[in-house]
Write a structure and sequence with these properties.
It is a single chain. By secondary structure, this protein is of the alpha+beta class. It contains 18 helices and 24 strands. Strands 14-15-13-16-18-17 form a 6-stranded antiparallel β-sheet. It has a 6-stranded antiparallel β-sheet with strand order 20-21-19-22-24-23, with helices on one face. Strand 2 and strand 3 form a beta hairpin. It is globular.
């Protein structure tokens, strides 16, 4: 089989698609890059097959779009060949029996040092998988490295489970799927089994837009070399903020790898500046506003010491430059490449320590089960009335915009949920914004799919004066999207007193209504008391369908707390799995 010559067809594989990617979005992406497709087949799990004109177009599309940042996700784009095991040339292994809360970074830690990994992504588990476990496909640079991984990792105990590791083709399996919630690309971490599971703290920098081409290199050659040499993952956000003078680059990995990758990028920038006569270069680091104070220090003492120790000049952008959608400030460092790199390492370490300290001191999240505190922090301080926040979120808890990930072990793979939010018809224009600008900001910031129903398709008579907004995304995305809608309503004068009150609907399995109501209505009364919301359910047995609608009315924090508690209640079935093995589903009759 290994000696077979496969003829590449006209079908393209696109993996690790973002949650909001539909057929139109994929077609638009291809058209923007001068590719014409005849069909798009989107599969569950976050991947799609696209039919192009011919094999040559497929090859060009794969070369151009593989690694492309599409709506926040780094795409995996490859020619689709009938036999995935042949295409992978025996370089991929499947690691199964992995506890379902683990991420790709945890698997990467187990790989022997010096082994070159091209990709880790979620894949379908083998037929004999244990319930409550997941599988990853790991692709190596060579067949020998893949076989070495099988020999060293098969049977190794990891998080209480004995891993099963086998070559990809032994399963007779198709390609792995870079799912919506899978971790595409690698975030390299130090240590091995048993080391503390700290998050990858990304290094974010700004570069001039006309430097991006040199950093990426011809057909991605330069950026690929940087990632291979440093074992860091480098995401160049070249398609964001079209027309801007600067582009952001995010570097993931352990501290040393991030610093090495940044240094190599500076070297490329220096070469480009010398060849084009642009003079000296500046390293511009991005950091969340709430971490900046600890870089500056009291009276500027900390930043002065960093400058003295590294022989650099460091300045920080004004707080007036940040906004609700961009809470980062710029730390500009000038000096030699060696000294700028030393300053970056010191600053990154202080940012990392400050962030981890904030995580440990965060307020309890018992009011919002299933939601990581980072999500709650992401919208704090964005102008919402302080009186509307529950006491557990008050105080000096610092907000973060989702730039920095939570610790690996704190959250399982997130489920995607559907929520319906009702807004007055007269507020629709404000939520959409001029030429759709505001709703695009909501979608971009939250990562959720947000759709406003047309007035003609409204359907329910009880909502004739209101418009239904359908929000689809993870718990964190739901929090952010709903928050921004509530906040916009407040800004536009729709508050009752100091607070905005809206109606939210979620769907729950009909069999779980009794659990929510409780004996004599005890549970629902306690829910209303604890969350300060109004909760309306049909009487048990009154609905003939598989699912029923729960109506929740209240302020933002009230309806959020009620949503999270109700979803947690209906998910607590034997075995701890959500009902029907998935998230609460979208209503089909509207």
């Amino acid at each position: 089989v290994e000696n077979c010559d496969l003829e590449m067809g006209s079908k393209l594989y696109m993996g690790n698609l973002p949650t909001g990617a539909d057929e139109k979005a994929i077609r638009d992406l291809l058209e923007e890059n001068n590719f014409t497709c005849s069909s798009v087949l989107i599969k569950r799990g976050g991947y799609a097959f696209v039919e192009l004109n011919d094999a040559n177009a497929v090859k060009q599309a794969a070369d151009k779009l593989n690694g492309y940042n599409f709506l926040g996700s780094v795409l995996v784009v490859e020619p689709s060949i009938a036999s995935a095991s042949v295409r992978r040339e025996r370089k991929s292994v499947v690691v199964s029996n992995v506890p379902n809360h683990c991420r790709a970074e945890g698997i990467e830690r187990l790989i022997p040092q010096g082994v070159n990994i091209l990709r880790i992504e979620r894949t379908d588990p083998p037929s004999d998988f244990r319930e409550g476990t997941i599988a990853f496909e790991v692709t190596f640079e060579s067949q020998d490295e893949a076989q070495e991984a099988v020999q060293k990792l098969n049977g190794v105990e990891f998080e209480g489970n004995n891993l099963k590791v086998e070559m990809m083709e032994r399963r007779g399996s198709g390609r792995g799927r870079g799912g919506r919630n899978g971790q595409q690309g690698l975030s390299y971490l130090q240590g091995g089994p048993g080391t503390s599971k700290q998050p990858d703290f990304p290094l974010r920098i700004l570069v001039l837009s006309d430097m991006v081409g040199a950093i990426i290199g011809r057909q991605g050659g330069t950026i690929r070399q940087i990632t291979q040499q440093t074992r860091a993952r480098v995401d160049v956000h070249r398609k964001e903020n079209i027309g801007s003078l600067e582009k952001a680059i995010t570097i993931y990995g352990n501290p040393e790898n991030c610093t090495n990758a940044c240094k190599k990028i500076l070297e490329v920038m220096q070469q480009e500046a010398e060849s084009t006569g642009k003079g000296e270069i500046t390293l511009k680091m991005l950091a969340h506003n709430n971490l900046i104070g600890r870089i500056i220090g009291k009276g500027g003492a900390t930043i002065k010491k960093i400058m003295q120790d590294t022989d650099t000049k460091i300045t920080v952008s004004s707080i007036n430059d940040i906004s609700s959608y961009n809470l980062e400030r710029i730390i500009s460092i000038k000096g030699t490449i060696e000294n700028m790199s030393k300053a970056e390492a010191i600053i990154s370490e202080k940012l990392r320590q400050s962030y981890e300290s904030d995580l440990q001191s965060m307020a309890p999240q018992s009011m919002f089960p299933g939601l990581h505190p980072i999500a709650m922090m992401s919208t704090a301080g964005m102008g919402f009335p302080r009186g509307a926040a529950p006491p557990s979120l008050m105080g000096s808890v610092p907000p973060y915009s989702g730039l920095y990930p939570p610790p690996i072990t704190m959250t399982p793979q997130p489920l995607e949920e559907t929520t319906y939010l009702y807004i007055p018809n007269i507020a629709v224009g404000a939520i959409i914004g001029t030429k759709g600008s505001h709703i695009r900001n909501i979608i971009r910031f939250s990562g959720a799919s947000v759709k406003i129903a047309t007035s003609e398709g409204q359907g329910a008579a009880s909502h004739q004066e209101e418009r239904k907004v359908t929000i689809f995304g993870t718990a964190e995305s739901q929090w952010k999207a709903q928050y921004l809608i509530f906040e916009k309503m407040r800004e536009e004068g729709f508050a009752q007193g100091d607070e905005v009150r809206l109606t939210v609907e979620i769907l729950v399995p009909a069999t779980q209504v009794g659990r929510i109501i409780g004996k004599g209505g005890q549970n629902v009364r306690e829910l209303q008391r604890a969350t300060s919301s109004i909760i309306k359910l049909p009487e048990q047995g009154a609905s003939s369908g598989d699912e029923v609608t729960v109506h929740i009315i209240g302020t933002f924090y009230a309806v959020q707390s009620a949503q999270r508690r109700i979803r947690a209640m209906v998910s607590q079935v034997p075995g701890g799995r959500p009902p029907r093995g998935g998230p609460l589903r979208e209503k089909r009759d509207q």
